[in-house]
Amino acid sequence: MDSRREANHSPDGNGATAIASPIVAKSTPRTGVESFPATMPLGQFLFEYLYRRGVRHSFGIPGDFALPTFTWLEKSKIQSITMTHEPAAGFAADAYARINGIGLVCVTYCVGGLNVLNAIAGAYAEKSPVVVVSGAPGRKDREKDPLLHHKVKTFETQRRIYDEVTVASTVLLDEQRAASEIVRCVEACLRHKRPVYIEVPHDIVDREIPMTGIDPAPHEKSDPHTLDAALSETLSLIRAAKKPVILAGVELARYRTARLVVRMAERMKIPIAADLLSKSAVPENHPLYIGVYGGAMSSDEHVRNYVESADLVLMLGTFITDMSMGFYTAKLDRRRTVLATSERVSVQYHRYDSIQFRDFLEALATAKIKPKHFKHPNPHALPEPLKNAERSQVLTMVDVFRILSLHLDERCCVVADIGDAIFGAVGIRSARQAQFIAPAYYMSMGFAVPASVGVAMAAKKLRPYVLVGDGAFQMTGAEISTAVRLGLNPIIIVLNNDGYGTLRKVRDGRFNVITQWQYSKICELVRGGDSITASTKGEFDDALSQAQKSDCVHVIELKIPRNDVSQQLARAAAEVRKMRGTKNS
Ligand SMILES: Cc1ncc(C[n+]2csc(CCOP(=O)(O)OP(=O)(O)O)c2C)c(N)n1
Ligand SMILES: [Mg+2]
Asked: Which of 127, 160, 222, 532 lies 20 to 30 A from 343 at CA?
């Protein structure tokens, strides 16, 4: 995994050295700062710059050190959304960033900043470009190093912790350098598709700052000879291949390059598979799409067999993780793979440096190559329609994903939480292209309900369909309250299997027991939305139809038999038990 960080411009990392050279050289990306007045209040510049770079919504919770910053946020064109808890604000900003291309979370010092840290760690791990703005003690407050509320160890503690989960960070202690530090961090976020941290002491945010020293990093370019060499080696492998496959990775979504890969697949007639993290990055209703690959956790045996018997696997933008490789059950041989990501290009055993990911994909998409007709293994593994005779049968996990698939179309975005919600979601396949978002690598519980708020704010046309276990719902389900306040319409499907079902399959104990809630009562508590409980296939089907007819929050509690799990979870749990030497429970 890449650990590149943007270098701080100043030796102490606090922006202490002034660099006074006015703006943008020819070969550098234009950030638009030329059009700002010569000086501006810091808070105004911060949010105006974020707005110009694509931020329209912010998720967070204020605090006394952050109130002046929140006042500027409220005066800006960015809509500020107060959430129930900072972790939820982080998950919402992460999901928002995945769809919108950049997200923003605003919090107060340490109690807020450290609360949101886990969500930002997830955004780092899964490459989601989130800007964290944290209010902080003022410059004056820090002078004699007093014990101030919210301080942990030193005034630098929060920033140092954030250095582990961001690609750039700054504490705005110097007016002269503030504008350039803001630009540096925001541009790093957009370039690396990873979080950045901007700490704003409360007594600087109203100060006028000059627009000097802004020096955006130049565009990185591919070395043309290296690019040619990598391309020709890849093309010769494609020409020789009898059964190639593209494993489309999550970076295609992050770098907005999926259409290049689809164009390449169409020209060369190569089938495409995805993994759990990249599910829906390429349209799942495309005729060349074959399903989700993940070793033993693949969506079906056809996909698994096809990918594992392929003589060339083109991994484009793919994260190779234990999860996406089905807990090491994947059988992919390096001798027959090409791996191209934003961090490196490797063709078989050769590694090519200094190639930009997009340049490589563009070169592949436009390369001269005669299309062959590779036999397509499993063109449309669509779900079986629900038969009348089945409607009164008990709902099982396999049916949950099948029935849901029958209701999805291009206006839907499925948001899956950890637990069987995410394992089983491998099997979702609809005739019309629905979106899919899940923390399928970092795997933090509590993601989905708050993420649905981020999805809805980022794309008004998408209706979130949340899949969340009872355990994960107990962590952040209260965020439904924000959806109700904002008039959003997510459909929240609570998979109630009476506790931590995933862990029960690996190792059971009293630690997997949670309190049984009456999940449908949540609407009374937050004073909005409709709820329903279902335990048969027909009831779930009807509940979805009913929810689709209305435009408010819907909570559907599904009573799932305690020991029932999806096939993917059963296989994954068996692998983990094998790896860890645990006996079946
Ligand atoms: C924040 C966090 N805490 C703990 C875990 C470990 N964990 C993984 S699955 C799981 C149980 C999930 O239970 P539930 O949401 O009910 O889903 P189920 O497994 O029953 O489908 C736990 C505790 C985690 N992934 N994330
Ligand atoms: Mg559960």
From this structure: 160
Identify the residue whose C-alpha is closest to ligand 1 atom 4.
Answer: 445
Q: Given CA atoms 200, 204, 207, 212 in this order, what sign does their dihedral have?
A: negative
Site residues for ligand 1, CB cut-off 6 Å: 418-420, 443-446, 469-472, 495, 497, 500-503
pLDDT per residue over 272-327, tens digit each? 999 999 999 999 889 899 999 998 889 888 899 999 999 999 999 998 888 888 88
What is the 502 CA–ligand 1 centroid distance (Å)? 7
Nearest-ligand number for the alpha carbon of 472: 1
Residues 523, 529: contact at Cβ < 8 Å? Answer: yes
Give the span between the Cα atoms of 133 and 116, in whole angstroms.
11
- Pairwise CA distance, residues 271 & 69, whole Å: 50
Is the separation of the CB atoms in 450 and 134 below 8 Å?
Answer: no
Helix, strand or coil, per DSSP, at residue 463: strand
Number of H helices and E strands in the chain, helices first, is: 20, 21
| Residue 379, pLDDT above cutoff 70 | no
What is the distance in A from the centroid of ligand 1 to the CA of 121? 17
Which ligand is closest in space to the CA of residue 497? 2
Tokens of 532: 């329903």
CB atoms within 10 A of CB 351: 11
Of the residues 120, 418, 420, which should be mutated to test ligand 1's pocket, given the most ligand atoms within 8 Å of the CB? 418
> Which residues have CB under 8 Å from 418's CB, separation 6+?
439, 443, 444, 445, 447, 469, 472, 502
DSSP secondary structure letter of residue 55: -
Q: How far is the CA of 277 from the centre of ligand 2 (A)?
A: 21
Ligand with an atom nearest the CA of residue 569: 1
| CA 19 vs CA 169, 176, 210, 549: distances in Å | 18, 8, 12, 59
- Centre of ligand 1 to C-alpha 71, Å, is 37
pLDDT in tens, 237-275: 999 999 999 999 999 999 999 999 999 999 999 999 999
Closest ligand (CA of 512): 1
Helix intervals (H) in 115-250:
117-125, 157-163, 175-192, 224-240
Classify residue 477 by its DSSP letter: G
DSSP reduced 3-state for 482: helix
Per the CB < 8 A criterion, the answer to whether 426 and 292 are in contact is yes
Q: What's the 508 CA to ligand 1 centre distance in angstroms?
A: 13
Centre of ligand 2 from the C-alpha of residue 497, in Å: 5
**What pLDDT band is residue 178 in, cutting at 50, 70 and 90?**
very high
Look at residues 245, 241, 283 and name the one whose alpha carbon lies nearest to residue 370.
Answer: 241
**Protein residues within 5 Å, CB atom, of ion ligand 2:** 469-471, 497, 501
Tokens 């003690």 belong to 137
Q: Looking at ligand 1, which atom is closest to the CA of residue 421? A: 21
Q: DSSP string covering 235-266, please? A: HHHHHH-SSEEEEE-THHHHTT-HHHHHHHHH
